[in-house]
Amino acid sequence: MKIYTWSNRKEQKGYTWSVSSGLFLLVAGLMFSTVSCNDYLDVVPDNVTTLDNAFSLKNEAEKYLFTCYSYIPKNGDGWFNIGIMAGDEIWLPQTDRTYWNPAFRIAQGNQNSNSPLLDAWRGYQFGASGGSDKRLFAGLRSCNIFLENVRNPGKVPDLTLDMRTRWIGEVEFLKAYYHYYMLRMYGPIPIIDANVSLDADVQASYVYRRPVDECVNYISALLDSSIAKLPDVVENDLQEMGRVTKPIALALKAKLWVMAASPLFNGNSDFAGFTGTEGELLFNPVYDPTKWQKAKEACKAAIDAAEGVGHKLHEYTNDPFGLADTTKIQLSVRQAVTEPWNTEVVWGNSNSYFWNSNMCQILLTGTKAQNRLPTPGVWEAPLKIAKMFYTSNGVPIEEDVTFNFTEYEQLRKATKNESYNIKTGYITARLNFDRENRFYADLGFDGGIWYKKDARSVDTAFYAQTKWADLGGAPSTLSWNETGYYIKKLVNWEMVFSDNDGTTYGQYPWPEIRLADLYLLYAEALNEVEPASTEAIVYLDKIRARAGLAGVVESWTNYSSNATKFATQDGLREIIHRERLIELAFEGHRFWDLRRWKKSAEELNKDITGWNYTGTTAATYYRETHIYSQTFVTPRDYLWPIGAEDTRKNPKLVENPGW
């Protein structure tokens, strides 16, 4: 799929729209040029300058359609994916600020209302090339222009009815998604259902925030309208991958209703007195259980639609090398994210490939040296994230009655039986032994095996050595890892080292929604509607089986100190939440999940720690070391600040509480 953007800034007849005041008075025909950092954004020829021309023929209207697509945030770029860097899941070194970005500064408590970081309200750069105006309100304006023109049967006369219907459905989805994205950040937002006429009084251009429930219902209705118009699958895989389909729209509706049913937006007393300028309560403080019922139904519809067109949990089956079962399980986990367009990816973001602009995969993997894998990069997982993964028995390390992790710093030498996870004979911390496959699939660590394609049939060829004096230690690199855990999950296993020609990296469209995500959302909704739901456990077990784990009931009954935990709603909720944090780790979900569960105040006030990266021996390296003390202010930090400039200039806007 090629996505085109308008290059001319010539004023045309049309409409206005405003976020705050005349400062943002935007003329509908005033198209902003965008700069692409990949091949998916091309510029429309300069002779296409008016809206009349834009919707005179199918070819020109299609370019405008792709303009609407171009506002999709580039979540495949870690510099701009809020969920990846703004929480506590991925950390950057304090000793080198080269790779610090606005999201990471939010993680360190630097968000502010004078100049909000990653400000989607006024607009921030979604692409690394810079210079692009990508605020989502501008995207909504473009969507409204498109819909008004293409819904008019007198426009684009060479457009067939079927194609016209599909295109309208696509842009209705995009309009819903941009509203959803803003709602998730800011809570109550303005609803931009139509652009304001150019000759309207300036007061008409002022927008005001609508109650959360009204926003949710509006987005849901818009998605319903799009779902009725969208195809089940794209018509041409080669040219249209990433275009919106019915399963994608149903999946977004599922995510919308689960978010709306969750504690942040459902009966949140923290915002009970928060009103708009019209005097309306922006948060309903009364819990509404019917939202979970709607979430349950939306999740099931999304799953049925996705499975109906062939989506399934990804499993690594192409095995020309005779790999061990352990290796294949771990490849299944990794490739569910990094295998382009694999069957598990319900929505792949073709507007954002990981990693085509700033080559962050280089930071994740380093280069080969004497068959050992040096420091895989500055993206690091805090020790608490390493502790989050289950034991090999499929239960939390603090609950396992078979394995004792109390002395997790204790040293131990890897045996041959552990050779697919840790280099035989290597001495590492007790925390790195007896863990589930997702721990080894997701994390690289000192002594840990890192299987790659150029290892051929030798599953254990590459392993990390990252103490201070090692080839992969801090003095050997310009930027080093301060926690001792590296984000292996996001690196395609087909990345290949080359001594002479450099290293090649497997790029892939960012997986916005995987089928595993939908299974976990459905399990969550089921448990809220039907406490301790056995069907919820069925969907958890599908994901656990792919990870090589026994089912919930078997694992907790046989190995947990809380053997009946799954038999209560609260217990199963805790299991579902942790399963979700593990399965979707490092994909940008944890940040938003902690918020909607109202768990951020608990988790983001914990210290960031890691191993002592300056240690030269196992005894000095494997000491938990304090790195940073995070601070999360509740309820303020649950919502983004709109910003002082906008609230000053638009008397109808109110700032979020605490900002």
TrEMBL record:
The keyword Lyase does not apply. InterPro entries: SusD-like_N, SusD_RagB_dom, TPR-like_helical_dom_sf. It is found in: Cell outer membrane. Residues 377-659 form the RagB/SusD domain. Keywords: Cell outer membrane, Membrane, Signal. Coiled coil: none annotated. GO terms for cellular component: cell outer membrane. Residues 137-256 form the SusD-like N-terminal domain. It comes from the Bacteria. This is Starch-binding associating with outer membrane. The lineage of its organism: Bacteria, Pseudomonadati, Bacteroidota, Cytophagia, Cytophagales.
